[in-house]
Structures are given as C-alpha cells and as structure tokens.
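User: Fold this; tokens only.

Assistant: Input:
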Amino acid sequence: MTFAKKMQATGFYHSKETSMKTVMRHHNTWMGDPVRAMLAVNQNNMIKRDNLLENAIKTGAQLREGLNDMAKEFPEWVKDVRGRGTCLSFSVENEA
C-alpha cells in the first residue's frame, strides 16, 4: 500500500503485479511514477466532468461572504479573511 502527498494524499492499494519489489520503496515527489500519473489523469478528468472547479468557486464565494459577515459582526474575533475558492482562512486575535 502506498500513500503520499502527491495529488492531495492519494492512496493506491497494490496488486502483486504492481507492488514495489523493495520494502518501503517510494518514488520521490518530483520524479513521479506511472501509478500516480494515471491517478492524476483520472482525478483531472473527474474535476472537469463534475465541474468541481466551478463548484469550488461558487461555494468559496458563499463561504467568504459568510466569513466577511462574521468579521463585520464580530471584529474582535474574526479578522483578515483571505484565500481563494474553498481554501480560506482568517485570523483570531481576541485576548478575552
């Protein structure tokens, strides 16, 4: 079994034919390997097929709007809303 940070911590359960011959052997991040390349192609196809980018943009805008509303209502708790899509963050600096 192999898990890695490539393509958002994708995992792959190996059959005997695709298993690594050396225990704990794993390709490095910048070299790639055939299994990760196949997974990347399929993941990219799913992103396009299911309109996941558009969905992230739409839901991210809703999330950001809600966080901005919270920042206006509770400026002592929610500050500096930032990010893109659904990858957003904010600062909390209350000493109460």
